[in-house]
């Protein structure tokens, strides 16, 4: 009975999360000759798009960190306008040198069931000039209901993005079926959370670690 309740609950969440029909966009032209070494230092989320319409990931800052075990992405954010949280995942560098922008992020959760301890998610770089703007997206597909989910970060080296950089950053969005008019502009004046958490938590932009 408990397993049935868990499955029903998971199924309900899936229908609310995966909202776009079909598989993730294919044959997407990502950033050519992407250089991860130039992607270091802070990137501020200036615009974003979530295909499920949720706004749980505001005030997001992305930063690469080098550790003895590899390169990690630290994603700090303000959840629901109240909690300052962060998630740290290891960057999985593509083995195909012809696809440098096809990155993945791998999270480790020690207290999770064995199947969920290691979770890997796509992290695709659509465009960047390294100094002013970057456009990154993640897409996940559910064969159970034949739908997918997309989250887009339009990033800047500062809290504001000029019009020229915004135009260049949003131009490739048509490849993944995202209308730039649906992007939500970040209001950094409302990024003062009431509560801080010192322990890394699961990122809101990466939800389901196993095929559903």
Could you explain the architecture of this structure?
- There is one protein chain.
- By secondary structure, this protein is mainly beta.
- The chain has a single domain (2-22, 30-196), classed as Calycin beta-barrel core domain (Lipocalin).
- The protein contains 2 helices and 11 strands; from the N terminus they run αβββββββββαββ.
- It has helices at 2-17, 163-170; strands at residues 20-21, 43-50, 58-67, 70-79, 83-92, 102-108, 118-128, 133-142, 147-156, 184-185, 195-196.
- The longest helix has 16 residues, at 2-17.
- The two termini are 20 Å apart.
List the helices and strands and how they pair.
Layout: H1 2-17, E1 20-21, E2 43-50, E3 58-67, E4 70-79, E5 83-92, E6 102-108, E7 118-128, E8 133-142, E9 147-156, H2 163-170, E10 184-185, E11 195-196
Parallel strand pairs: 5-11
Antiparallel strand pairs: 1-9, 2-3, 2-9, 2-10, 3-4, 4-5, 5-6, 6-7, 7-8, 8-9
- Number of H/I helices: 2
Broad structural category: mainly beta
Rg estimate, integer Å = 17 Å
Distance between the termini: 20 Å
The major sheet is characterized as: 8 strands, antiparallel, barrel
Number of strands: 11
CATH class: Mainly Beta
CATH topology: Lipocalin
Q: What is the H/E string?
A: HEEEEEEEEEHEE
Label the CATH architecture. Beta Barrel
**Major sheet: arrangement of strands:** 2-3-4-5-6-7-8-9
Mean pLDDT: 85
Question: In the CATH hierarchy, what is the superfamily?
Answer: Calycin beta-barrel core domain
List low-pLDDT spans. Answer: 1-15
Helix content: 10-25%
How many domain regions?
A: 1
